[in-house]
Each structure stands twice: as C-alpha cells, then as structure tokens.
Amino acid sequence: MSAPGAGAARAEEFATRLAAVRTRIAEACRAAGRDPAEVELVAVTKTVPAEDVALLLDLGLETFGENRVQEAGAKVERVAELRPAARPRWSLVGGLQRNKAAAAARWADRVESVDSIRVADALDRAVRRLLETGGRAAPLPVLLQFSVDGDPRRGGVPAADLEPLAEHVARCGGLQLRGVMAVAPLGMEQDRAFSAVATAANRVRTRFPQANTLSAGMSGDFESAIRHGSDVVRVGTALVGDRPLASP
Ligand SMILES: *Cc1c(COP(=O)(O)O)cnc(C)c1O
C-alpha cells in the first residue's frame, strides 16, 4: 500500500509532466503551422499500474497505450473498477503475436501494431467472433506498423510489403484500416526517419483515403514527428517518468 498522500503527490507530478508535454506539442504545432487540436496524445502506460492510469484519466487524458496484451487486459478491468464513470480508450502499441489476438480483441479500441497478414487474420477472426456474440459492437480500427529500416527484429512491415498488407487488411471484415504507425529506429536521424514514415503513410492513404491516421513520435522525438505530419503521438516516459513508482 502507498503511504497516505502518495496518490496526491503522484497526481501533482503527472499534472506537471502533462502540462510540459502539452506545451511541447503546442510549440511543435505552432512551428509547423498546425492546429494542436489535431494531434492526439496517447499516454503510454505500459510501465505503470492501474491506479496511475486512473490519475491520468482524472487529468483529462482519454487514450492509453499498452504493449503487453495479458497485463493490459487486467489493467483495463482494474481501471474500470477504479473509475466506473470514465470511458478510457485503449490502444495496443506493442508487438502482437497470433496467440494473443483473441485477448487483445477483447479490450483494445485500436491496434497500432499490425505488421503481418498472419497477425491481421488472427485479429480479424477474433473480432468477427466477438461481433457475432455481442462482445464487440464494431470492427476494430487498426494501424499498420511500418518498419523504417526493414529490420525484422523490431517489428513492423518493410516498405515493400506495406501496400500488400494494406490491401489485405482492407478486405478483413472485422478490421478497419485507419493508417500507419512507426517507431524511429535508434541511431537514425529523426527527421530522416519520420520523412520516410510520412512517405509510406501517404502511399497507404492515397490508395485508402480512410487510412488517414499517422501515429509517430514518442517522448524523445515527437516534435520531429509532428513536423512530418503525425496525427498521434505516443508518450510514455515524458508523462509518467522513467520507471513505475517504487513499491515500499
Ligand atoms: C514505449 C512505447 C512508446 C512510448 O515511449 P516513450 O519513449 O516512453 O515515450 C511509444 N510507442 C511504442 C510502440 C512503445 O513501445
């Protein structure tokens, strides 16, 4: 258990960090001649407990990014108990394995990490089953995770396979193709990386106009991503700190 007052201190810390992140987003948008209201902030809460997500909800954050399917499922339930009146949206931003697709389909409002036909098919099957049984009301919005450098170890679909994957996902009745997500490779110059991401996202958008969401940019590089047209920034460390609050 936390000491009395720990929650209040944590809430204050989050409020300060959130204000700083919003200022950075606003400044990046101003520099790029963009409207900050067009940039969605996803709070990446993969390292923090449900109690912290509840505090972030209280501060007005609405969408939360998670990367571990099982852990996130339990967290989603716990947050619903803590804040029954809130309607958080949950985005899966981490690598998805086929055997986790059914679990992800139960809690995810968006999956940003579809990077193969096999994963798309598993997710599509899981969602369609839920649609039939009333476990979901609508198809699942998905983004295709694009690999800037084509390195298969870090997830993401290489440039040559991106459009074939988009064609495939567009035909999946359980999925709604909404756009592209990417992580800038370590060691690559940020503007060069996000310029490549923007080019890839535009290719998909040209072919599928509804796939108009670009999710790019994290704590360390979202200004560059916003310059290159990102619509969604996924921010963890800058909002919640380097690691979870230590338990006593
Ligand atoms: C962890 C993670 C983030 C957030 O990264 P920070 O550097 O902590 O802001 C964003 N996107 C993905 C895919 C992640 O795994």
UniProtKB/TrEMBL annotation:
Domain (Alanine racemase N-terminal): residue spans on this chain: 18-244
Modified-residue entries (N6-(pyridoxal phosphate)lysine), positions: K46
Top-level taxon of the source organism: Bacteria
Keywords associated with the record: Pyridoxal phosphate
Residues forming coiled coils: none
InterPro entries for the chain: Ala_racemase_N, PLP-binding_barrel, PyrdxlP_homeostasis
Pfam families reported in the protein's UniProt record: Ala_racemase_N (PF01168)
Record-stated family: Belongs to the pyridoxal phosphate-binding protein YggS/PROSC family.
NCBIfam families: YggS family pyridoxal phosphate-dependent enzyme
Function as written in the Swiss-Prot or TrEMBL entry: Pyridoxal 5'-phosphate (PLP)-binding protein, which is involved in PLP homeostasis.
The name this protein goes by in its record: Pyridoxal phosphate homeostasis protein
